[in-house]
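README: folding subset

This subset contains proteins for which both the sequence and a predicted structure token string are available. Records are stored as plain text. Below is the entry for Lipoprotein (122 residues), shown exactly as it appears on disk.
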Amino acid sequence: MKKMVVSVVVCILLTACSAQTTSTSLDGLYFTGRYNSLNSLEFKGNTLIVKKGEDNIKPSMEPEDVRVVKNEQQTYKGIQVEIKDDRYYITGDDEFSMTLKKTGKRIVEDASGEEYVASYEF
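--- output ---
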């Protein structure tokens, strides 16, 4: 009887603890630039792919005249994510570091003010 009571208490505690656990990883998330869709952040396992791009769009342009004028991609390995409050401290190999601030349910902002949007809450 005593073992059964202890087992029930342990199960209740484990259930309560698992309900309060939050994900500390950005693994599997894909963020698109909020105001520039050519910018993106993609977290795959311990890899981060950062894409930065620019186009030549002007209000008076014809669609066939639009061109991508800059398109860069960087891949960072050994990615570790540490979360403190609303900040994501991201480090990786070769002394890579980046800080993202969560500004909405699906939105993060990098140090230069660029906002990125995920397709779902995280």
